[in-house]
Design brief:
Elements lengths: L4 H11 L4 H8 L3 H8 L7 H11 L3 H6 L15 E4 L4 E5 L7 E8 L7 E3 L5 E7 L1 E6 L2 E6 L3 E4 L5 E5 L5 E8 L2 H5 L3
Antiparallel strand pairs: 1-2, 2-3, 3-10, 4-9, 5-8, 5-10, 6-7, 6-9
Helix pairs in contact: 2-4
């Protein structure tokens, strides 16, 4: 799956008639890096993927779910890992295919010590299933424990860090439209 990300970035970029230079300018990443990424000659970091998604005006789930097949039911043991970072964060699809509502599971393992910051172009809703995260939204920290949820408006700066030992598992949903997906094809 990770091997297909570069091809998918190129497909989306071309469908939007955006040049590598434009993505480079908007993302702050070099055209050479982006070109190698589109040819799957290097592996992106989660931070760089977020920059690329912002430059293409899509969210990470849209980028990665475009690689998914169409399923109504996704069993836990059949979830596809769509991205795994060097900082010990794994994203799995909890919904697949051409859906208005998209979902991912974010699993932060015990070795992750980073405080990662993001901004998405869609609203998102998350719920903690296991463990504890500190989410900072608009500079306000929220401690989220098992069963707690959070709603983050589109284009809102937010970050997270794991607070407890062991894995932290959270589920996230994003709303999109069929047009968001078909624009990319």
């Amino acid at each position: 799956m990770v091997n297909e990300i570069g091809f998918n970035i190129k497909k989306i970029r071309n469908s939007k008639n955006i040049t590598l230079q434009e993505v480079s300018k908007k993302s702050g990443l070099s055209p050479g890096y982006l070109s190698k990424l589109e040819r799957n000659l290097n592996s992106p970091t989660i931070v760089n993927l977020q920059k690329i998604c912002k430059a293409l005006d899509i969210n990470m789930t849209e980028l990665l779910s475009d690689l998914a097949e169409d399923k109504i039911c996704v069993k836990k043991d059949e979830r596809r890992v769509i991205f795994e970072t060097e900082s010990h964060i794994k994203y799995e699809l909890t919904s697949e295919g051409d859906r208005n509502l998209k979902g991912v599971s974010m699993i932060v393992d015990d070795n992750s010590k980073e405080n990662l910051s993001f901004m998405h172009n869609t609203d998102e809703f998350g719920i903690i299933i296991e463990g504890c995260l500190e989410m900072t939204v608009d500079e306000i920290p929220y401690i989220l424990e098992e069963g707690d949820s959070i709603y983050i408006k589109a284009n809102t700066e937010h970050s997270f860090r794991k607070l407890n030992p062991g894995e932290c598992v959270s589920y996230w949903t994003y709303q999109g439209t069929v047009n968001d997906i078909t624009k990319k094809i």
